[in-house]
Amino acid sequence: MWTLYEDSLFKLEKQQQMILFEEAMDSTKNCLPYDGAVHYWGKIFSGDISQQYYSKLMDSIAWKNDEAIIFGKHIITKRKVAWYADKPYEYTYSKINRTALLWTPLLLELKSIVEEKTQQVYNSCLLNLYHNGQEGMAWHSDDERDLVSNGSIASLTFGAKRKFAIKHKKTKHRIVFELGHGDLLEMKNETQSHWVHNIPTTKKVHTPRINLTFRQMIK
Q: How far is it, in rounded angstroms, from Cα 140 to Cα 149?
């Protein structure tokens, strides 16, 4: 079973009605009502296997604090990141240029599993380490020019359960997933053109979350 929170399009002035519903898992179902596609598999690993991957990623990945240029200021975040790929791709987001490291055997193993699920091929992976609920991600779209237009982005989570919100740029229609240990979600087609997404902060989460987003870079 999986849980999804969805904002109703029907609202009176500033009030928004939240609908909470559960339904049987079906990864072929498009969770977006229009302008894109999001598919959700839920847990693709057992709890024990997820914990093994979590521990290995925590110890073996070359984590470093993320950087961004915001209103002309160079910001270094508490959240840590790592960037791996087929070759040393150059990738720019938040106005910072990054160069990919080459895949580790562990990441290649996870990439193969994710590709089998999504039936897509990925040549890179951006990893994020959130130490607790006070670290999140602002609203954004993964629409950088380095990425394949309308391509697939597969999000694999290990560790703490966190909310992952998707909001339509024009209608403000919102869908919120709770992504937990071993959960897989895919965004593709026109999603990045019409929707933004974020990881909201929370005081209720005190343990780390590792998120891997497998991506399709322009070669």
A: 16
Nearest of 65, 33, 30, 38 to residue 170 by alpha carbon:
33
Residue 178 to residue 164: CA distance in whole angstroms: 6
What amino acid is encoded at 22 in this protein? E
Q: d(Cα 50, Cα 44) in Å, to the nearest integer?
A: 9
How far is the C-alpha of 194 from the C-alpha of 168, rounded, in Å?
6
CA distance 24 to 13: 33
Read off the pLDDT of residues 92-103 as tens digits, 9 standing for 90 and up: 766 667 889 999
> What are the structural domains, with CATH classification, of the chain?
35-215 (2.60.120.590)
Which residue, chain included where needed, has tokens 């849980």? 3
SS3 60: helix
d(CA 1, CA 23): 6
State how far the Cα of 78 lies from the Cα of 135, in Å rounded to an integer.
7
Q: Taking the model in full, what pTM does it have?
A: 0.86
Q: Where are the alpha helices (DSSP H) in the chain?
A: 47-60, 105-118, 191-194
132 three-class SS: coil
- In angstroms, the CA 114 to CA 106 distance is 13
Position 94 scores a pLDDT of 60
